[in-house]
């Protein structure tokens, strides 16, 4: 790519933005077509192998027992498997990145479609805008020590296009 000006991106006229929801649906379909089985439910108990601590099975609140060779922890900040069962440890980055909350909202599609994600600094974090084909994805990542949830929502909504 030829450099124009001081940025290596000056001459770029395209980019790829994927709708995360649609992409997740696609990946789920591909995985299930290959035999992956997805289970929903609340984990009541984690069974671990005594010899190495690896997870053998999950017991759900419904009583269902799910044994497998691979488990993916989708419990978010609760980290039920990786931290609750495996005690893998948590690296606290608050010293460098104090933001501990995020809000997201969709808005109308912006035309012309911009080939980049826009990130703007805010008083207690930053706000993003991701242009997609059918809509724009927007969000505000912030530190709750410096701004309330209601104030953060107001900042986000006040700065939508």
UniProtKB/TrEMBL annotation:
InterPro entries linked to this entry: FAD/NAD-bd_sf, Flavin-dep_Halogenase_NPB, Flavin_halogenase
A GO molecular function for this record? monooxygenase activity
Q: By its UniProt entry, which Pfam families does this protein fall under? A: Trp_halogenase (PF04820)
SUPFAM superfamilies in the cross-refs: FAD/NAD(P)-binding domain (SSF51905)
- The name on file for this protein is Tryptophan halogenase
Q: Which organism is it from?
A: mine drainage metagenome
């Amino acid at each position: 790519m030829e450099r124009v000006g001081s940025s290596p991106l000056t001459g770029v006229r395209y980019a790829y933005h994927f709708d995360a929801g649609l992409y997740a649906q696609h990946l789920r379909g591909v995985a299930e077509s290959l035999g992956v089985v997805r289970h929903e439910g609340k984990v009541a108990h984690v069974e671990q192998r005594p010899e190495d601590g690896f997870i053998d099975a999950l017991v759900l609140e419904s009583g269902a027992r799910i044994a497998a060779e691979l488990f993916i922890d989708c419990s978010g900040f609760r980290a039920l498997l990786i931290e609750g069962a495996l005690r893998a440890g948590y690296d606290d980055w608050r010293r460098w990145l104090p933001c501990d909350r995020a809000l997201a909202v969709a808005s109308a599609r912006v035309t012309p479609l911009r080939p980049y994600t826009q990130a703007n600094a805010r008083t207690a974090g930053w706000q993003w805008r991701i242009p997609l084909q059918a809509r724009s994805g927007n969000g505000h990542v912030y530190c709750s020590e410096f701004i309330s949830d209601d104030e953060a929502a107001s900042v986000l909504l006040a700065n939508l296009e």
